[in-house]
């Protein structure tokens, strides 16, 4: 992270990614306040303190995440956040607060929390601090030196998860044991430097997902089988499989080298024939045949080694299947602990008896309720027949009112007495002057009077 080459590439001042907050360039008053130093205590002005801390703490972590680094130094942060020739005066206080909250951790403290004995180059680099750092801690001074390396805890966990997924998706995952050098090559793009790579391995070791062992001067790494499984210690079987894998790689490289040599001898023989040098061409062909015999012998050995590895991988798969079967049988036994054939038959009989009882109840309810009255259906039928016969014999008593049938919709006439008719007739006769009323024959006089009407 802090090699001279990387420092030369990073521009002085400003964020290389261009992802600084908007007020960085727009609000001079705000930035002057943020670049000023913190008060000695938060109790002096908690509002100003929290405002500055709320600005710088997330910015430091997000800057590290964008850069893809997990190791921080105060000096590098001051250079990264330069603005118009000035540096933030409160970054040391921000780092102290992040250390107090556990979001940052001193690199030396992190190394001490994990078994890092396999890191031979760590002495003098990780574990030994400069004398002034040690004295400052002994005297109770919690200031962060500008050169002290800090580790972003959450970013380191994310990087460790990335490396683990990278291994799981690579051909190296065919066996849990892999050479440290091969793993380092695989993670070259994820880990920008060797120290970050070792910190990632320590984090995985802390999470019980890898273990590191030195074998014959070479470091080997063993991974856990599953993402949620814990790694087991390296045993003799793991070492033997690792040696077979190394032998396979060595034989493959040797066969490839001899194949190139045989091809070279063939070309030399062809050129000698074209030049008319028959003896030289024969020697080249003999060398080619010897090389091919060696290749055949190496192929036989390589096939043997690969066959052994295939059987080992198959046995490991069989062991996994066996363990799965065993776990399944145990779970099945536990789930059927209180289940027997007799209990199942008894349960079925009880269910059948309950179903029969329910059917009887349903039939009883379907019969209805008679409220204590018992009727004879035959007697009811006879009585109904007698009523029907009587009805057919009796004539229908219908009113004879033919006139009303024709004038059902007309207005009914009121009943008028004879005296009223005679009085009305007498009035009509007097009004016309030619009729003389007669009390003896009123009906005769009514007829001519009604004709004009």
Automatic annotation (TrEMBL):
<dbReference type="GO" id="GO:0071168">
    <property type="term" value="P:protein localization to chromatin"/>
</dbReference>
<dbReference type="GO" id="GO:0001778">
    <property type="term" value="P:plasma membrane repair"/>
</dbReference>
<dbReference type="GO" id="GO:1904930">
    <property type="term" value="C:amphisome membrane"/>
</dbReference>
<dbReference type="GO" id="GO:0005654">
    <property type="term" value="C:nucleoplasm"/>
</dbReference>
<dbReference type="Pfam" id="PF25880">
    <property type="entry name" value="WHD_CHMP7_1st"/>
</dbReference>
<keyword id="KW-0653">Protein transport</keyword>
<dbReference type="GO" id="GO:0007080">
    <property type="term" value="P:mitotic metaphase chromosome alignment"/>
</dbReference>
<dbReference type="GO" id="GO:0005828">
    <property type="term" value="C:kinetochore microtubule"/>
</dbReference>
<dbReference type="GO" id="GO:0005765">
    <property type="term" value="C:lysosomal membrane"/>
</dbReference>
<keyword id="KW-0175">Coiled coil</keyword>
<dbReference type="GO" id="GO:0009898">
    <property type="term" value="C:cytoplasmic side of plasma membrane"/>
</dbReference>
<dbReference type="GO" id="GO:0097352">
    <property type="term" value="P:autophagosome maturation"/>
</dbReference>
<feature type="compositionally biased region" description="Low complexity">
    <location>
        <begin position="10"/>
        <end position="22"/>
    </location>
</feature>
<dbReference type="GO" id="GO:0000776">
    <property type="term" value="C:kinetochore"/>
</dbReference>
<dbReference type="GO" id="GO:0046761">
    <property type="term" value="P:viral budding from plasma membrane"/>
</dbReference>
<comment type="similarity">
    <text>Belongs to the SNF7 family.</text>
</comment>
<dbReference type="InterPro" id="IPR057471">
    <property type="entry name" value="CHMP7_WHD"/>
</dbReference>
<feature type="region of interest" description="Disordered">
    <location>
        <begin position="1"/>
        <end position="22"/>
    </location>
</feature>
<feature type="domain" description="CHMP7 winged helix">
    <location>
        <begin position="156"/>
        <end position="224"/>
    </location>
</feature>
<keyword id="KW-0539">Nucleus</keyword>
<dbReference type="GO" id="GO:0005643">
    <property type="term" value="C:nuclear pore"/>
</dbReference>
<dbReference type="GO" id="GO:0015031">
    <property type="term" value="P:protein transport"/>
</dbReference>
<dbReference type="GO" id="GO:1901673">
    <property type="term" value="P:regulation of mitotic spindle assembly"/>
</dbReference>
<dbReference type="GO" id="GO:0039702">
    <property type="term" value="P:viral budding via host ESCRT complex"/>
</dbReference>
<dbReference type="GO" id="GO:1902774">
    <property type="term" value="P:late endosome to lysosome transport"/>
</dbReference>
<dbReference type="GO" id="GO:0030496">
    <property type="term" value="C:midbody"/>
</dbReference>
<feature type="region of interest" description="Disordered">
    <location>
        <begin position="392"/>
        <end position="416"/>
    </location>
</feature>
<dbReference type="GO" id="GO:0032511">
    <property type="term" value="P:late endosome to vacuole transport via multivesicular body sorting pathway"/>
</dbReference>
<dbReference type="GO" id="GO:0061952">
    <property type="term" value="P:midbody abscission"/>
</dbReference>
<feature type="compositionally biased region" description="Basic and acidic residues">
    <location>
        <begin position="392"/>
        <end position="402"/>
    </location>
</feature>
<feature type="coiled-coil region">
    <location>
        <begin position="248"/>
        <end position="275"/>
    </location>
</feature>
<dbReference type="GO" id="GO:0043162">
    <property type="term" value="P:ubiquitin-dependent protein catabolic process via the multivesicular body sorting pathway"/>
</dbReference>
<dbReference type="GO" id="GO:0031468">
    <property type="term" value="P:nuclear membrane reassembly"/>
</dbReference>
<comment type="function">
    <text>ESCRT-III-like protein required to recruit the ESCRT-III complex to the nuclear envelope (NE) during late anaphase. Together with SPAST, the ESCRT-III complex promotes NE sealing and mitotic spindle disassembly during late anaphase. Recruited to the reforming NE during anaphase by LEMD2. Plays a role in the endosomal sorting pathway.</text>
</comment>
<keyword id="KW-0963">Cytoplasm</keyword>
<dbReference type="GO" id="GO:0000785">
    <property type="term" value="C:chromatin"/>
</dbReference>
<comment type="subunit">
    <text>Interacts with CHMP4B, but not with VPS25. Interacts with LEMD2 (via C-terminus).</text>
</comment>
<dbReference type="GO" id="GO:0006900">
    <property type="term" value="P:vesicle budding from membrane"/>
</dbReference>
<feature type="region of interest" description="Disordered">
    <location>
        <begin position="431"/>
        <end position="453"/>
    </location>
</feature>
<protein>
    <recommendedName>
        <fullName>Charged multivesicular body protein 7</fullName>
    </recommendedName>
</protein>
<dbReference type="GO" id="GO:0000815">
    <property type="term" value="C:ESCRT III complex"/>
</dbReference>
<dbReference type="Pfam" id="PF03357">
    <property type="entry name" value="Snf7"/>
</dbReference>
């Amino acid at each position: 992270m802090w090699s001279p080459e990387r420092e030369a590439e990073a521009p002085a001042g400003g964020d290389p990614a261009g992802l600084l907050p908007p007020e960085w360039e727009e609000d001079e008053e705000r930035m002057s306040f943020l670049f000023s130093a913190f008060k000695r205590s938060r109790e002096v002005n908690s509002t100003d303190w929290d405002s500055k801390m709320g600005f710088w703490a997330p910015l430091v972590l997000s800057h590290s995440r964008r850069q893809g680094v997990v190791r921080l130094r105060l000096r590098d942060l001051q250079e990264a956040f330069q603005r118009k020739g000035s540096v933030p005066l409160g970054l040391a206080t921000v780092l102290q607060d992040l250390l107090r909250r556990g979001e940052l951790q001193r690199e030396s403290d992190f190394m001490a929390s994990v078994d890092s004995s396999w890191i031979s180059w760590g002495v003098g680099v990780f574990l030994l601090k400069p004398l002034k750092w040690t004295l400052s801690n002994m005297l109770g001074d919690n200031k962060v030196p500008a050169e002290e390396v800090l580790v972003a805890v959450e970013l380191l966990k994310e990087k460790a998860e990335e490396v683990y997924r990278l291994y799981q998706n690579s051909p190296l995952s065919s066996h849990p044991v892999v050479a440290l050098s091969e793993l380092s090559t695989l993670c070259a793009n994820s880990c920008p430097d060797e120290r970050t790579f070792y910190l990632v391995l320590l984090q995985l070791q802390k999470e019980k997902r890898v273990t590191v062992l030195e074998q014959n001067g070479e470091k080997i790494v063993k991974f856990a089988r599953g993402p949620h499984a814990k790694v087991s210690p390296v045993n003799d079987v793991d070492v033997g499989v690792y040696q077979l894998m190394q032998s396979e790689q060595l034989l493959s490289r040797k066969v490839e080298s001899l194949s190139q040599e045989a091809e070279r001898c063939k070309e030399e023989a062809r050129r000698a024939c074209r030049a008319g040098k028959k003896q030289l061409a024969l020697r080249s062909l003999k060398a080619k045949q010897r090389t091919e015999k060696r290749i055949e012998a190496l192929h036989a050995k390589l096939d043997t080694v690969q066959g052994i590895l295939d059987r080992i991988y198959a046995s490991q798969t069989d062991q996994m299947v066996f363990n799965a079967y065993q776990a399944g049988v145990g779970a099945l036994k536990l789930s059927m602990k209180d289940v027997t054939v007799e209990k199942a038959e008894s349960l079925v009989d009880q269910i059948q008896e309950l179903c029969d009882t329910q059917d009887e109840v349903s039939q009883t309810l379907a019969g209805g309720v008679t409220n204590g009255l018992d009727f004879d259906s035959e007697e009811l039928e006879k009585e109904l027949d007698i009523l029907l016969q009587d009805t057919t014999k009796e004539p229908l008593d219908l009113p004879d009112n033919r006139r009303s049938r024709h004038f059902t919709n007309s207005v009914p006439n009121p009943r008028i007495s004879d005296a009223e008719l005679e009085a009305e007739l007498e009035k009509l006769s007097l009004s016309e002057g030619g009729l003389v009323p007669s009390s003896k024959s009123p009906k005769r006089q009514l007829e001519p009077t009604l004709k004009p009407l």
